[in-house]
Amino acid sequence: MSLRARSWRASHSFVHSEFSPKQIAAGREASVSICLPARNEARSIGPILESLLPLRQLGLVDQVVVVDNSSDGTAGIARRLGAEVHDQRDLMPEFGPVLGKGDAMWRALSVLEGELICFLDADSDGLGPHYACGLLGPLLARPEISFVKGFYRRPFRVGETTFPDGGGRVTELTARPLLALFYPDLAGFEQPLAGEIAARRTLLERLPFVTGYGVDIALLLDAHREVGLEGMAQVDLEVRQNAHQPLRDLGPMAYAVLRAVAARLERDGRLDGPLPSIDEPSSDRRGSGQVEGAVERPPRASLRAAA
Q1: Segments in the chain forming alpha helices (H)
Q2: Burial category of 185 from C-beta neighbours within 10 Å (exposed 0-12, middle 13-18, buried 19 and up)
Q3: Would you say residue 296 has pLDDT above 50?
Q4: Is 118 in contact with 34 (CB distance < 8 Å)?
Q5: How far apart are CA 45 and CA 81, in angstroms?
Q6: How confident is the model at residue 154, as a pLDDT?
Q7: Per-residue pLDDT tens for 24-62?
Q8: Rounded mean pLDDT of the chain?
Q9: pLDDT at 222
Q10: Sheet holding 84-87, edge to edge
Q11: Distance between CA 133 and CA 184 in Å, rounded?
Q12: Which of 5, 109, 140, 184 is 20 to 30 A from 83 in CA distance terms?
């Protein structure tokens, strides 16, 4: 790890316990939206929302939104609990079919009202209010910070047995080596593929969104390009436990990450292009077998400028 990355990690890494709900509610001046993109998360969406929705009563957030593309009743559960629910297909339909998680996040910006926006994955066991508080805390405490990523330990569960380590295989075998080689200043990020982020709306609207599984690393690289290391932070959220994919399903995920990085290297003149315009097996975590191409949605700010 470079000296710059080590220095950044020491000064811009936080622990969620530094930011309590009461402290954030008392000190916040910006409006806050929490968004959970969801696809067939009926098993986990209830407990997650039961932990997040009380944050509205505490005055910590203004909006808790689920953008849904499910056939298992996820949307109904979310509505009954009091979340604001939108069908992904109804958001910006002029852009055609929704092409995965990154596309859902991009379209969600059209209904998210907060000046600060926190995206959380909807498939985590044990996701509590400390996820939102931890991610929002640095944005509220440090005005120079515009982008915050979560990190955690990733247990690996096989049947009834859970090993303390071993999750996050695409992170360790693809994402972190790519950053160490091509973006060494970002090597201090513990979980570059973490779906748990918080950012200022003004930044998110300047960023393109990769439509598939590459969205998380693409946002990291593009945020760095916009605000630099000093405008970024990471927060220890302790543990994240979710379902693990068979090894055969990790290849498309790794490919999506590699392609997102390669596209940015090409854009910046560090890789001779053009990249091959081939479709890739879907990185959808439910193993749908769909095929999705490498698509990027434009920065929302550019859409307003063109209107």
Answers
A1: 3-12, 21-27, 42-52, 54-57, 74-81, 101-108, 129-141, 169-170, 176-182, 201-204, 215-227, 247-267, 300-306
A2: middle
A3: yes
A4: yes
A5: 10
A6: 67
A7: 888 889 999 999 999 999 999 999 999 999 999 999 999
A8: 89
A9: 98
A10: 13-15, 232-239, 147-153, 197-200, 116-119, 32-38, 63-68, 84-87
A11: 29
A12: 140
* C-alpha pair distances (Å), 237 with each of 16, 129, 143: 6, 10, 21
Q: Are 195 and 120 in contact (CB under 8 A)?
A: yes
- Copy the structure tokens of residue 83: 């979340």
Task: Provide the β-strand partners of residue 63.
Answer: 33
Question: Where would I find the H helices in 73-175?
Answer: 74-81, 101-108, 129-141, 169-170
Q: What is the number of residues in the chain?
A: 307
Per-residue pLDDT, 201: 98
CA distance 284 to 287: 6
pTM: 0.90
Geometric angle at alpha carbon 51, from 48 and 57, rounded to 5°: 135
Q: Write the CB contacts of 89 (distance below 8 Å, at least 6 apart in sequence).
A: 69, 97, 98
At 237, phi and psi to the nearest 5? -105, 10
- Assess contact for 243 and 284: CB atoms under 8 A: no
Helix segments in 87-195, DSSP class H: 101-108, 129-141, 169-170, 176-182
Give the contacts of 276 (CB within 8 A, at least 6 positions apart): none
Q: Which tens digit of pLDDT belongs to each residue from 257-276?
A: 999 999 999 999 999 988 87
Structure tokens at 74: 């996820």
262, two tokens:
């390669």
Rounded CA-CA distance 28/59 in Å is 9
Pairing state of beta strands 116-119 and 197-200?
antiparallel
CA–CA separation, 130 vs 17, rounded Å?
7
Cα–Cα distance, 104 to 119 (Å, whole number): 11
